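RECORD TYPE: protein structure
NAME: 4751_t:CDS:1
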Amino acid sequence: MNQVFTGTVISLKNAKTAAIELVFNYLHPKYHKPIRRKKKIQAHYEKYDLKLGDKVVIKSSRPYSAIKRFLVIEKANKKNQTIKASLSNKKLMLTGKPSTIPKGKLSDGKPAKLPRSNKLSLQWEDVNPAKEWLKSAAPPEIEDILLTNNNFCEQNLSSFTRFPRLHRLFLGTDNAARIRQGIYNRWYGSLIHLLTLTRLQELDINATDISSASNEEFEANIGKVEDIRTLIFDLLYSRYYGVIVYVRIFRGELVKGQKIKFSRSQKIYQVERLGVKTPQEVLKEKLGTGEIG
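PREDICTED:
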């Protein structure tokens, strides 16, 4: 299975070879904590016109520990442009296709008018964990928020109350390779905060880490928000089993062998094993409404 790494060109050896610095995260096999690593490699680039500072995408079937030399690289996709805005000396990354990038700037913590877009999309970006950008951003025009496949530090779920017109909220990770590297977003706080978003119609929380909210009774209040059907996932990576998720069933039941469709990615996955921790792991054939497994 090919893994994808992003890197920056730091020097050009000759017309065909470049030195590239990779920045990636992986999950520590013993402590199960994400560790950030940098590694310098050499790569051929006959097909591409590279310059210093260019972002590149590198694919290989070899794991991070065996990275020495790659022959297959491509320049980073420029269809998704990136702009930066200053928020009280903090930086907010807004990414998306040109038609969805808002005009204007956000400065001094004050929201600007965003006439072209009501969508804030932050996907596949490495975010500096020291900057809690979500606390600073509060544009009232934002209706859609997509936060997927990132690695920023724990954020409080109450931050979303700053978006009163929010209709759709996507959190989590849908890329197994990034999960194995420890790249996924982390949250804490109460899910009840999301009930204050009276216009929220679509909520997708999958393959993420919610440290304190995953055990709270949200089922009794979920009917207050229309059209929400979701599973809350915590996750870890096991060398033996692969990706393991902890779930709470809101409605219906989850059965071994059942196929699950993620609304964010539209990908379909099959449940291979089911069980509960009481406190040891016990395998079961199905999980019902209200159960945690």
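COMMENT: The first helix runs from residue 133 to 136.
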